[in-house]
Amino acid sequence: MTKADLIESVSTKLDLPRGQAERAVNTIFDDIVAALRNGDKVNISGFGTFAVSARKARSGRNPKTGETIQIAASKSAKFKAGKSLKDTLN
Asked: Which pLDDT score, from 0 to 100, does residue 63 have?
């Protein structure tokens, strides 16, 4: 499912114009990103939890040349499925 498919689904199920459905979906995504940017966890009951994970700087190897390189520290978004979602999938 793509973002466009999600917007179309929201529009159909809620009988909204496509523009309003798109604004609603974008608002939800923007709020999740803003919370993660602030270092907060986003817990959606029955679905799962989004959180920020920090990765330490480390050395790696360029697969093409074999040269050792330094990989900078970074942050990444992680998702952990909730029990209801896991149960639905299994």
From this structure: 92
Phi-psi region of 31 (alpha: psi -120 to 50; beta: other; left: phi over 0): alpha
- Residues 51-86, buried b or exposed e (16+ Cβ, 10 A)? bbeeeeeeeeeeeeeeeeeeeeeeeeeeeeebeeee
Q: Which domains does the chain have, with CATH numbers?
A: 3-83 (4.10.520.10)
Element (H, E) at 40: none
What does the CA dihedral 42, 81, 28, 17 come to, rounded to 10 degrees? -160
Residues 22-61: pLDDT tens digits? Answer: 999 999 999 999 999 999 999 999 999 999 999 999 999 9
